[in-house]
Write a structure and sequence with these properties.
heterodimer, A: 112 residues, two-stranded antiparallel ribbon, B: 327 residues, mainly alpha
C-alpha cells in the first residue's frame, strides 16, 4: 500500500473508532443518566469552586507566559533571550517560505 | 461492503483495536495499581472482582455514568469529541504493529504515525484548557513545555532503528517492517550498536516525559496544583481523558518493545498469533518497568524536567541519529 492510501485509511479508521468511543462512552451513557436522574440546578450551579470558595469570576493566567517562564528558568535568562530572538526570526522566515510555497503551487497549477 | 474493508473495521473495533485495548487497559492498570501499592506497603484494589482485578473497569463505569457537569466558563462538547477521536487514533495505531493479524504498512509510515500520535497530547491539553481554572492553566503550560522538548527527542529515538533497518534490510522506513527485523539491528556494526544503545536510553526516558510519568509528572502535581490539568475535569470527561492516557501507556511501550526489544523475535514472523503474544509480553515488561520507576522516583520541578531533557536526552538522541546517518 502506498503512503497516501495508508494515511487516508488510518484517518478513516481512527476517526471511526473515535466516534464509536464518543457514541458509546459519552452519548449513550449520558442518555441513560438523563433518563434515570432529573437535572437539579440552583443559584450556584456551574460556578467554579476553588479552595472551598465559590467564584463568580475566574482569575486568568497566561499559558504562554508560564511556558516562557519555565523555558527561561531551565535555560537561563541569556540563552532564553537568544532562543526567543532565533524563534522570532525563524517564524518570520517560515511564514515567508509558506507564502512562497503557496505561490509556487498556485503558479504550477495555473501553468500546468 | 468489500471484505477487506470490513476486516480492517473489525481490526479497529475489536482486535487489536478498541475491545482488546479496553481489556488490556483493565489488565495493565490492575497490575500498575497492585505493583505500586506493594512498593508503597499498601494492598491496592481488593474489592471489585477476584483480587480487585475489575477495579479499573468499575472506576471507568463509575465516571462515565455520572452526569456531565462543567462550570459556566468551560467549553461544551468539542473537547470530548476531540479526545475521543485522539483515543481512536491511538487505538488504531496498533494496526501498524505486529499485534495485528493483518497489519497496515507502507514506506515512510513511521513519519505519518509520529505526526498522528501528536494529536493525543494536544487533545488532552485542549480538554484541560477548555475548563479554565488557574491550576488547570499552570498544568497545561507545564505539560506543553515538557512536551515541547520531549516529543522531538522521542521521535529521533524512534527514527534510529527505522533508519538502520531501512539502510541494511530495505524496510523502507516502515515501523512494521522494522519490528520484524529489529532483533538484528543491535549487531549490524559497532557504530549502529552504539546508536541503538543511545537511542534506546533516550527513547525510554523521553517516553516517561510524554506519558507524564514520574519524574516528569509536574503537569499533574496533586499536592502542589491540585491535579493541575485535571482540576476542573470530572465524570465522563475525566473517564475519556484517562482512557486516552491509559491507551497511550500501552501504545508507547508497545512501539518501544517493537523497535528496541527485538520486536517479534524469537517467534516466526509468519505466525501472527505467536508474534502478537511476543509483542504483548514485551509490552508488559516495558509497562512494568515504567510503573516501578513511576512508583519510586520523586518529581522534578518543570524547569528541572525541561533542563534534564535538553542537557542529557537531546545529546544522546542526536548523537545516535548522527551515528546512523554519517557512518
Amino acid at each position: 500500500m502506498d503512503i497516501y492510501t495508508l494515511i487516508a485509511l488510518y484517518t478513516g479508521l481512527g476517526t471511526l473508532t473515535g466516534l464509536v468511543i464518543y457514541a458509546v462512552f459519552y452519548l449513550a451513557m449520558q442518555y441513560y443518566v438523563e433518563r434515570r436522574a432529573p437535572t437539579q440546578r440552583d443559584e450556584v450551579s456551574e460556578l467554579p469552586v476553588m479552595g472551598g470558595f465559590i467564584y463568580a469570576e475566574l482569575p486568568r493566567t497566561s499559558v504562554t507566559r508560564i511556558i516562557r517562564d519555565i523555558i527561561k528558568r531551565s535555560l537561563g535568562a541569556q540563552r532564553a533571550r537568544s532562543l526567543y530572538e532565533l524563534s522570532r526570526n525563524f517564524s518570520i522566515w517560515y511564514i515567508a517560505a509558506l507564502i512562497l510555497l503557496a505561490i509556487v503551487v498556485v503558479l504550477a497549477y495555473l501553468f500546468g | 461492503m468489500d471484505l477487506e474493508a470490513l476486516d480492517l473495521i473489525l481490526e479497529s473495533l475489536i482486535y487489536p483495536g478498541l475491545v482488546t485495548t479496553i481489556f488490556f487497559i483493565v489488565f495493565t492498570q490492575w497490575i500498575a495499581r497492585k505493583l505500586s501499592a506493594r512498593i508503597m506497603y499498601r494492598r491496592g484494589p481488593v474489592y471489585a472482582g477476584p483480587a480487585g482485578f475489575l477495579q479499573p473497569l468499575a472506576d471507568l463505569f463509575k465516571l462515565v455514568l455520572k452526569r456531565d457537569l462543567v462550570n459556566r466558563y468551560s467549553m461544551g462538547v468539542s473537547p470530548v469529541v476531540l479526545v475521543s477521536i485522539a483515543t481512536g487514533f491511538i487505538v488504531v495505531a496498533q494496526l501498524f504493529l505486529p499485534v495485528a493479524y493483518r497489519p497496515i504498512y507502507s514506506s515512510f509510515d513511521v513519519i505519518a504515525l509520529l505526526y498522528f500520535l501528536l494529536l493525543a497530547p494536544f487533545a488532552l491539553a485542549y480538554l484541560a484548557a477548555g475548563h479554565p481554572n488557574p491550576y488547570t492553566t499552570i498544568g497545561v503550560a507545564r505539560y506543553l513545555a515538557i512536551l515541547f522538548v520531549a516529543e522531538p527527542a522521542f521521535a529521533i529515538s524512534v527514527l534510529v532503528p527505522v533508519l538502520i533497518a531501512s539502510q541494511r534490510f530495505g524496510t523502507e522506513y516502515s515501523i512494521y517492517g522494522t519490528s520484524v527485523v529489529s532483533h538484528l539491528l543491535w549487531a549490524v556494526d559497532p557504530f549502529k550498536t552504539i546508536a541503538m544503545i543511545l537511542s534506546a536510553i533516550a527513547g525510554f526516558i523521553s517516553m516517561f516525559a510524554i506519558l507524564g510519568l514520574k519524574p516528569f509528572d509536574a503537569p499533574e502535581a496533586e499536592s502542589e496544583i491540585y491535579w493541575g490539568m485535571f482540576t476542573e475535569v470530572g465524570g465522563p470527561r475525566l473517564a475519556l481523558a484517562f482512557f486516552m492516557k491509559f491507551a497511550e501507556r500501552i501504545l508507547f511501550p508497545m512501539i518501544y518493545a517493537a523497535l528496541f526489544l527485538g520486536g517479534v523475535w524469537p517467534t516466526n514472523s509468519f505466525n501472527w498469533f505467536a508474534n502478537a503474544l511476543t509483542v504483548y509480553l514485551k509490552t508488559l515488561i516495558v509497562f512494568v518497568a515504567t510503573v516501578v520507576v513511576d512508583s519510586i522516583l520523586p518529581r522534578y520541578r518543570p524547569d528541572q524536567a525541561v533542563s534534564f531533557i535538553l542537557k542529557y536526552i537531546y545529546p544522546m538522541s542526536i548523537a545516535s541519529l548522527l551515528l546512523v546517518i554519517v557512518k
